[in-house]
Amino acid sequence: MVDRTDEDGPTRAIRWFAETVGSEWHLRILHALRDGEHRFSELERRTGSSPSTLSRVLDDLATTGLVERRVQERPIATYYRLTARGRALAPVFDAVETWADEYRDA
């Protein structure tokens, strides 16, 4: 096991970020929610995720405070959207997209 007690602030921050949103599915779902609230089925379609993966990742993202769930009673529907904490990731996604556009085929 790696001793992380001597990590500096930037190293600790990057590790925390990677553990929180670093999986492909976490990133896909966060990106899909950037343009607003979506139903579960819309997120399945937009991300290509299986229902079980989508459910698990949405639970993870809700636990970390990046996504919130809203239940509508009539007609019954469940919606997901980014919290303020999740929306704060927008500049990160913008930077990643810019970087990928520049270096993807390099």
Automatic annotation (TrEMBL):
It comes from the Archaea. One of its GO terms (molecular function) is DNA-binding transcription factor activity. The keyword Iron-sulfur does not apply. InterPro entries: ArsR-like_HTH, HTH_ArsR_DNA-bd_dom, HTH_HxlR, WH-like_DNA-bd_sf, WH_DNA-bd_sf. This is HTH hxlR-type domain-containing protein. Pfam families: HxlR (PF01638). Gene3D superfamilies: Winged helix-like DNA-binding domain superfamily/Winged helix DNA-binding domain. It comes from Halarchaeum grantii. Residues 9-106 form the HTH hxlR-type domain. Keywords: DNA-binding, Transcription, Transcription regulation.
